Amino acid sequence: MAFTVNTGFGTQIRKSPYFDATVRWGAQGYSVYNHMYIPRDFGDPEQNFWNLISTAILCDVGVERQVEITGPDAARFVQLLTPRNLSTLSVGQCKYVLITNADGGILNDPILLRLGENHFWLSLADSDILLWAQGIAIYAGLDVTISEPDVSPLQLQGPASGQIMQALFGDSIMDLAYFWLREVELDGIPLVVSRTGWSCELGYEIYLRDSAYGNELWERIMVAGQPFGLAPGHTSTIRRIEGGMLSYHADADRHTNPYEVGLGRLVDLDMPAEFIGKAALRRIHDEGLRRKQVGLFIEGEPLAGPNSEFWAVTQDGNTVGKVTSAVYSPRLGYNIALAMVDIDSADIGTRFEVLMPQGAQQAMVVDKPFYDPKKQLVAA
Fold this sequence. Notes:
Layout: H1 19-24, E1 29-33, E2 36-41, H2 45-54, E3 56-60, E4 66-70, H3 74-81, E5 94-96, E6 99-100, E7 106-108, E8 111-116, E9 119-123, H4 129-140, E10 145-147, E11 152-157, H5 161-169, E12 181-186, E13 189-194, E14 203-208, H6 214-225, E15 230-233, H7 237-242, H8 278-287, E16 291-298, E17 311-315, E18 318-329, E19 334-342, E20 351-356, E21 359-366
Parallel strand pairs: 3-15
Antiparallel strand pairs: 1-2, 3-11, 4-9, 4-10, 5-8, 6-7, 8-9, 11-14, 12-13, 13-14, 16-19, 16-21, 17-18, 17-20, 18-19, 20-21
């Protein structure tokens, strides 16, 4: 049965400083992320994918809210939140980190930015880490201030993004290394820029530090990008699954531990610093995994779009896991997916049936990421 959903905009869901600009530039649909509207549709998602990998796209990701942590004990407090060892994190550096709970479950997988000796931002995925951090701070006995600053990121992603950044900021921006940041101004607009992004392509994140400049910043970047083929766009499900990137709530949640999704490298059980979930993660590490995230090729006709529900994965009639993210890759010519399966069914070459709305389809475990496994594009 076909049905239509009409979406109304209300004051209980926030808009980013770029909302009006995205409407002007052709956004046709939005979803809600971190209690904010995020553009999800600028037309054909396959064309958005080709724009990303061939030229560049500009994405409104103001929904990536920042948790700002300052104060004399800021560094100690940030380490308390994450199992990744931050002892070598320099001012001006960024790191991909996990926020874990007492059971070792993943609460968020943000980018951590260190702006000063005692000044940090957590650039969030979709969960309320501001409230979590403020609650932890009450009982931590540390001198910190936790707040949400007036900061809204854009993502400029794709192979032409470096040329566009050079046109905007001059030649010196080309010295910015992968996972480092710089505080800059653009025609008086206060910004932080970093060599990061959620695309598995060369890219930058541009953090606006005053929401009053939202429209002006968007237009300024789009004008500078026109000679290089810049298009307005949205984060590409196709590209992020090709790259094996997690989408929080889909591929991981508070019941998922880092080892299950192949992120054990972000857990340092031997560092002297304490962090929330350390005892639980040590126990999980010592006992071994019961399930594991794998990559799948799924046979059959190209999927019409990403999955909107979890699909059961079965062997010999028994459910052994679920597909968490699936999409058709026009570049690879195959349906690709991320799935969480029992550890005994996680070996490369293992075959399954995936129970999809259009019927059961054969699938096989393959290596992931599906494309550019050494991240040569993003770190170029």
